[in-house]
Amino acid sequence: MDNTLKFTDSHEWVLNHGDGTVTVGISEHAQEMLGDVVYVELPDVDSDVDAGDNFSLVESVKAASDIYSPVSGIIIEVNEDLGDRPELINEEPYEGGWIAKIRMTDPAELDDLKDEAEYLNTLED
């Protein structure tokens, strides 16, 4: 896993591209808890999101789970591959299973997220 990943308490991950944009998905732990993903509701490109807003939905054979935006900004791209292959979230949660890319309006919000070690420690509690 890349050290530039940050995590939320609600199990989303964020990859900072260093240019004001981030890629967002759900963690390995989250996809394991959900089980086999069968559907992903993607956000609309050009829509505004605030940190903590529900912006996507992932449905599995076990449950449906809201996905929350880790940062505020504008959705600039969504992973259209998930329409035909939602199982990418299970198979490649940190690569092919990403959900959306966001142009941040407040990059300082990244400071509120956990690094990998902090996130993994919360899973053990």
UniProtKB/TrEMBL annotation:
Report keywords, A-Z: Lipoyl
Q: Which residues carry this modification: N6-lipoyllysine?
A: 62
Cofactor: binding comment: Binds 1 lipoyl cofactor covalently.
**Needed cofactors:** (R)-lipoate
What's the short name of a Pfam family annotated to this entry? GCV_H
| Matching InterPro entries | 2-oxoA_DH_lipoyl-BS (IPR003016), Biotin_lipoyl (IPR000089), GCV_H (IPR002930), GCV_H/Fam206 (IPR033753), GCV_H_sub (IPR017453), Single_hybrid_motif (IPR011053)
Gene Ontology biological process terms from the UniProt entry: glycine decarboxylation via glycine cleavage system; protein lipoylation
- The segment(s) forming the Lipoyl-binding domain are 21-103
Organism domain of life = Bacteria
Which is one Gene Ontology cellular component term of this protein? glycine cleavage complex
Q: Which family does it belong to?
A: Belongs to the GcvH family.
HAMAP family reported in the protein's UniProt record: GcvH
Q: What does this protein do?
A: The glycine cleavage system catalyzes the degradation of glycine. The H protein shuttles the methylamine group of glycine from the P protein to the T protein.
Q: How does it assemble?
A: The glycine cleavage system is composed of four proteins: P, T, L and H.
Q: Which PANTHER family match?
A: GLYCINE CLEAVAGE SYSTEM H PROTEIN, GLYCINE CLEAVAGE SYSTEM H PROTEIN-RELATED
Per its record, how is this protein called by name?
Glycine cleavage system H protein
